[in-house]
Amino acid sequence: MPVFALLVEFQGDPPSEELLAAHRDWLFPQFERGVFILTGGLEAVPGRSPSALAIMTADSIAAAESVIAGDPLVQAGRSVCQVVPYTVRVRAADLDTFFGDDTKAIDRTS
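User: That's the sequence. What structure does it adopt?
Assistant: Structure tokens below.
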């Protein structure tokens, strides 16, 4: 299945805890279904809006965009997303060792 990088730029003031909870309630099942592989915020850099990066799978860019359209942050106009085809060429064999205990791991059911 094709892999995509999702470039996310946040808009306006930080979202409310209620909106973030709705985002997590939408996001975590996407991991369980095998749609998302990794997600996380990008550290602040001068001149760049608050942003995040995700790696996801979908049948096509249109299918990935359809998934993203269901994100409450997108629906509320609080994030703008760009889906970019991503070709994995090399990965660390011990990928799990790069992430600490503070990283949430979600088992895929599919």
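The mean pLDDT is 91.
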